[in-house]
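Email to the structure team, subject: Protein RarD model.

Hi all, the expression group asked for a predicted structure before they design truncation constructs. Nothing fancy, just the tokens so they can compare against earlier work. One-line instruction: predict Protein RarD, return tokens.
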Amino acid sequence: MLEASLGYFINPLVNILLGMIFLGERFRRMQWLAVILAVCGVLVQLWTFGSLPIIALGLAFSFAFYGLVRKKIAVEAQTGMLVETLWLLPVAAIYLFGIADSPTSHMGQNALSLNLLLMAAGVVTTIPLLCFTGAATRLRLSTLGFFQYIGPTLMFLLAVTFYGEVPGADKMVTFAFIWVALAIFVMDAIYTQRRKH
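Reply from the structure team: attached below.
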């Protein structure tokens, strides 16, 4: 779980990097400051983790390249999601009905309430993906990457306020860097937008 959460912190930085390399996106000075602060926050987590986090890097790079491909293809969010789902359906069906062997994979033997929960999980997963793909076609990839820090921040707030988790000093340092970076990024965007009008 720790390595996966680290992947969610690395992912926006990879999005920013891919936006610069493949889409020619450029930053203003304040945006560079925000990126440097976010990198510092992620480096604190990497240092705390203590080794090269293969799962975190795999997660970060795969989702970032997915965002880049969605940006380059420029297909409407719903159409793209339909094509992706239809493409993956045979693979998922083979796995679910032929390979997987867990209590939840035997839908014919499950209680109706469990099957309904499993189907609802699909809907709950699809809605954020539709929002992401819609944003990927409309925003700069680097901007999209920066706003992906909102998810881990909300998870942090839920963990602390509702689940009573106590974050360590390293997590607080990471979040401080990222929150300041987000604030700078947003303030710069607002300032630039006002100057244009």
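Residues 2-196 form one domain. Residues 169-196 form the longest helix (28 residues). Ping us if the truncation boundaries need rechecking.
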